[in-house]
Amino acid sequence: MNAAAKLGTYVLGLAVIFGGALGVGSAVGEVAPAPAEESHGAAHSTEAAAVAPEDTPGGLQVSENGYTLTPLTSTIRPGEPTDFQFKVTGPGGGPVTDYQVQHDKKLHFIVVSRDLTTFQHVHPAEAGGVWTIKLTLPEPGAYRAFADFAPTGADGLTLGTDVLVAGDYAPKALPPVGRTSTVDGYTVTLDGDLIPGQSSKLTLKVSKDGKPVTDLQPYLGAYGHLVALRAGDLAYLHVHPDGAPGDGKTAAGPEITFYAEVPSGGDYRLFLDFQHAGTVRTADFTAQAAPAPAGTPAPTSATTHGEH
Are residues 123 and 200 in the same domain? Predict the structure, then answer.
């Protein structure tokens, strides 16, 4: 099979079976160029079709409520730092330049591999409606990029787009379910269970060299940020931190508590960013939500968009 045929088969596989079930890939080639600007009439048709049902999790759509995430960088090679650029256009078709500040930033940008084994939470800079971030993707394959933001005067959104990195791709197995993660000498333990259709309390406890860490440092206005992604389709899920630094009741560790809302049973990946001794680190877990009990009502719009 030639390289072009392999690329076509690979991308079709992504659309049908999602990241966790991808077969072993081969040369995927360069990322396709960004789509051309739509005509005025086509834009209205796209917007009408891109109004998500209320129970659709965030990150599954490139367009929603008239807002569209458009990558401007067409080529990424593994291991090479790249000035990755993208823009967000609004209902009128022009670039969005006015954002609400959430967690100290106008926009949060999360990039994960489709097999959910690599994760980056970064903050690009915006100029003239174009966002730029120095991005290094370590290995060939398929990645999902999420833009988490709230335009001024509008509700918060999480839009997602696929990014392909050229080279031979061998997806990794999803890490096993576990309640302990280690990173740079820190140990983070997870307490709590994901329950479909309702808010689930998750408590993460940070220790170092066997001693609880009680002097976590605020990072983006919180002692920790948690991103939850559903294995398979990489739905970006709603997570609320409990408390905030300086509120007079939230301790600076060792425990960080969140409330996560998952819409279905199955496997999820959890990524916790926390800061200590001036460095931000990421602990990761695979968690499993039990199937929703028979007769459980469908999740409401409270499960729609990620808030880390």
Answer: no
